[in-house]
């Protein structure tokens, strides 16, 4: 199994065969997680530290559960009460943690590039759990696994990514991954929620929801990231739902067997109608949550193998 990386900081450095390797292993862990015995030992004797500078429910719980199922000693750091709040720099925090000799560091941070900076200062493997508007690689990988299991393949599909693309690291990571796997990508949303330089993304862009969803195999809704907005990006939530919220009428323009996705947390009645989100024949939102644990297990397993294979170094 080839996965030639010390860290998992983003999708951009991954080759298509490495993505497939990780998804194949995650598929095995998805089956394993449905069994009674969930006591794997891939990370036995290793220490995993979760550092979340932003609030998270799904991602943090998923990484914690993944580490414990692989046999790691898992520690969650309460960053809201950490020395960062007392003025310590991120680099000093990294050096302090490095002196404790962890093996895996899982980091979510509100600033783009912060996780990469931290990774340069530690000996252990670092996993990016989301940094600013930059990337959220494990979310894209779990989305890919969910699509592959639902559709039987991960290539030559028409995938519509809808909503707040401008503020979404999920959208960016999915764009990178799905392009590498030879899919047709559509970005659908109001012009105010499209990033600058959108033409360079290699995707089709629509501001009409019905046109954007026409004959799509996958409809991926995004959360309105109001915490990252500092102006009037939308007239109102009611108007946004009328034009861009996913309901049965808009979904009817996609293929009859199109699946519906959302990274969560969902704003029901704003981004998506509750009946669509709960429709077991169309929605794979709960499958995404399930695949999140499997993908994170696979990612940490592969990084741990590389960690064990290389000689120990001392950072000065």
Describe this structure in words.
- This protein has helices spanning 16-33, 58-69, 90-98, 114-119, 137-151, 169-180, 209-213, 237-244, 248-251, 274-277, 285-309, and strands at residues 47-52, 73-77, 104-109, 125-131, 158-162, 184-188, 204-206, 218-221, 259-261.
- With 316 residues, it is an alpha/beta fold.
- A 5-stranded parallel β-sheet has the order 7-6-5-8-9.
- Helix 2 (58-69) links the parallel strand 1 (47-52) and strand 2.
- The two termini are 32 Å apart.
Give the termini distance in whole angstroms. Answer: 32 Å
CATH architecture of the largest domain: 3-Layer(aba) Sandwich
Give the low-confidence spans.
none
- Number of domain units: 2
Task: Bin the helical content.
Answer: 25-40%
CATH superfamily of the largest domain: Aspartate/ornithine carbamoyltransferase
Oligomer: single chain
Give the topology string: H per helix, E per strand: HEHEHEHEHEHEEHEHHEHH
CATH topology of the largest domain: Rossmann fold
Number of strands: 9
Instruction: Figure out the total of helices.
Output: 11
Major sheet? 5 strands, parallel
- What is the CATH class name of the largest domain? Alpha Beta
Average pLDDT level:
92
The dominant shape is globular
Strand content: 5-15%
Q: How is the largest sheet built, in terms of strand order?
A: 7-6-5-8-9
Please state the CA-atom Rg, rounded to the nearest Å: 20 Å
- Structural class comes to alpha/beta
């Amino acid at each position: 199994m080839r996965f030639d990386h010390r860290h998992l900081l983003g999708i951009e450095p991954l080759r298509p065969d490495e993505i497939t390797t990780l998804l194949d292993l995650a598929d095995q862990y998805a089956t394993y997680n449905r069994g009674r015995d969930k006591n794997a030992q891939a990370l036995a004797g290793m220490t995993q530290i979760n550092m979340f500078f932003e609030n998270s429910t799904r991602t943090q719980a998923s990484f914690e559960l993944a580490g414990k199922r692989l046999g790691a000693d898992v520690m969650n750091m309460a960053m809201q009460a950490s020395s960062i709040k007392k003025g310590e720099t991120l680099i000093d925090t990294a050096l302090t943690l490095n002196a404790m000799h962890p093996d895996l560091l899982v980091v979510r941070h509100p600033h783009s590039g912060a996780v990469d900076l931290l990774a340069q200062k530690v000996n252990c493997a670092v996993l990016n759990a989301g940094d600013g508007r930059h990337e959220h690689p494990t979310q894209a990988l779990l989305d890919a696994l969910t699509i592959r299991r639902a559709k039987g393949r991960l290539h030559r599909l028409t995938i519509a990514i809808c909503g707040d693309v401008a503020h979404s690291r999920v959208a960016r990571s999915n764009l990178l991954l799905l392009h590498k796997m030879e899919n047709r990508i559509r970005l659908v949303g109001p012009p105010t929620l499209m990033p600058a330089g959108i033409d360079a993304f290699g995707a089709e862009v629509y501001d009409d929801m019905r046109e954007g969803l026409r004959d799509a195999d996958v409809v991926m809704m995004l959360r309105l990231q109001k915490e990252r907005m500092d102006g009037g990006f939308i007239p109102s939530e009611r108007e946004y739902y009328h034009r861009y919220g996913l309901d049965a009428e808009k979904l009817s323009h996609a293929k009859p067997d199109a699946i519906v996705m959302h990274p969560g947390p969902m704003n029901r009645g704003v981004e998506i109608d509750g009946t669509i989100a709960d429709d077991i024949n169309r929605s794979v939102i709960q499958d995404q949550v399930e695949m999140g644990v499997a993908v994170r297990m696979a990612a940490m397993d592969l990084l741990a193998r590389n960690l064990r294979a290389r000689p120990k170094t001392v950072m000065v």
